[in-house]
Amino acid sequence: MTISLSDKARARCSWFPDLAAYDGPRYKALADALADAIHKGELQADQRLPPQRLLADALGVTTGTVTRAYGEAERRGLVEARVGSGTYVHLARAGDKPDFYHLTVDQPDDSIDLSLSLMVPNPARLESLHQAMQKMAADPRQLAAALAYQSERGQPQQLQVFVDWLDRHGVQVSSEQMMVTDGGQHGIFISLQALLAPGELLVSDALTYPGVIAAARQLHLRHLGIPLDEEGMDTQALERLCQQQRPRAVYLMPDQNNPTGRVMSQARRIHLAELARRYDFWIIEDAVQFLPPAYRHQRLAELAPERTLYLFSTSKILAGGLRVGLIVAPPLVLPRLMAALRAHCWMAPPLMVALTCAWIESGEADQLLQWQWQEVQERQQLLAEIFQGQRYSCHPTGFVVWLELPEGWRVGEFVRAAADAGVRLLGAEPFCVGNQSVPQAVRLCVSPPKERAVLQEGLLRLKRLLESPPQGRAVF
Ligand SMILES: Cc1ncc(COP(=O)(O)O)c(C=O)c1O
């Protein structure tokens, strides 16, 4: 019997993963396997990882792949390289829950990426940004102001630009109650930090935006999820919870839950506002996934203005790289929010805020928004035709689609099979609050492909998979 190089190396490895269970490029599969092993306790805090060349031989990959995987794990804060000594599991990380909230910048490949809720690509966006930049650059007074420190809330005339813009899209707010943030995620973090102390209870939909799960963890909050159905958050269940525990805040996306695309009914909105008054909690209303006025219901900020924070961002309209968002909050709470913002970053970058305002004032932002709303609606219609007979929920003008898998498919297998078929999407787990059982569902987004034809191809590939679930599993 001959013993291969890989068998010999494997015998000497203190840890050896089975990469067959992971999809994507090998370095990422190895980084994911490392994350899981740390989470499950197979790798302990401060444990030294196998030397890179040894693990590469054992796995039959290049040393470069292992180096890249260790680098990726380090970037995620899971391990640390110690000079001259090797790579170790991060002391603070072992036992931590896995962090699903990160953007993995993979090498571009041929996959059709439906995994992230990004704006629809539009060449006109670059052109109109270019023009807004040129206009700004031609005005030395505006440029000088954009380079200076400014009030943490934003300059009054900038706040007015946002007020007028929102007004044009059916949202009436006062500049007195508004402050500028570094985007929607920052708005969530600042709001939670200003309103809740460590250990206090945050409630959200049981399926929610992963950014709020990540923020609650960082702030050491207790976080519970309430089930949601076709009418949004089950406010009866929330009421039962309030009878036993004291939530300090409820976070939700009533116009379009991310990931399910579900809309909260008017009756539930009214009930939620009543509960907020009766049980004295704050409401954080996230409107970052901004919808056309005809599809919006009454805002929670209108139903309970004295206790609702309304969050908005330009990321899904103009560009995620601007990092410009807004919080509209009751006057009583603004000083706390401003203190939190100062402690973070003093102010949202004035240059970016000025550029965003110039872009909005040019009128081009409105055109981009109208175009995107129309395009998304057509993409959703395309999806409805292709997914006829499947169980899914979505909003007719929204980016996200929640697809319930038919009998026979399990979520991990489906995500891997989709990746093998060249389509990327996300399984349910990143959206699950707490340790509820993970639904057999995936989230996909209609917005990222450059062209509708590419989306169509991706959806057709998924449809073929949905119609041919694996034929049973061998059990030994
Ligand atoms: C519901 C929701 N809130 C907040 C955010 C974060 O927005 P931003 O990119 O502006 O930080 C996102 C981004 O996808 C989102 O979907």
Describe the structure.
- With 476 residues, the protein is an alpha/beta fold.
- The mean pLDDT is 92.
- Helix 3 (52-59) packs across helix 4, helix 7 (156-168) crosses helix 14 (350-361) and helix 15 (364-386) runs parallel beside helix 17 (452-466).
- The protein is built from 17 helices and 17 strands.
- The radius of gyration is 24 Å and the shape is globular.
What tags apply to this protein structure?
alpha/beta; Arc Repressor Mutant, subunit A; Aspartate Aminotransferase, domain 1; Aspartate Aminotransferase, domain 2; 3 domains; 7-stranded mixed beta sheet; 17 helices; 17 strands; 42% helix; binds pyridoxal-5'-phosphate
Q: What is the gist of this entry?
A:
This protein has 476 residues and is an alpha/beta fold.
Q: Based on DSSP secondary structure assignment, what is the total number of beta strands?
A: 17
Strand order of the largest sheet: 4-12-11-10-9-5-6
Low-confidence stretches: none
Q: Write the CATH architecture name of the largest domain.
A: 3-Layer(aba) Sandwich
Query: CA-to-CA gap between the ends?
Result: 27 Å
- Ligand roster: pyridoxal-5'-phosphate
CATH T-level topology of the largest domain: Aspartate Aminotransferase, domain 2
> What is the SS-derived class?
alpha/beta
The helix tally amounts to 17
Radius of gyration: 24 Å
- What is the general shape? globular
Mean pLDDT: 92
The helical percent reads 40-55%
Highest-level CATH class of the largest domain: Alpha Beta
CATH superfamily of the largest domain: Type I PLP-dependent aspartate aminotransferase-like (Major domain)
Beta-strand content bin:
5-15%
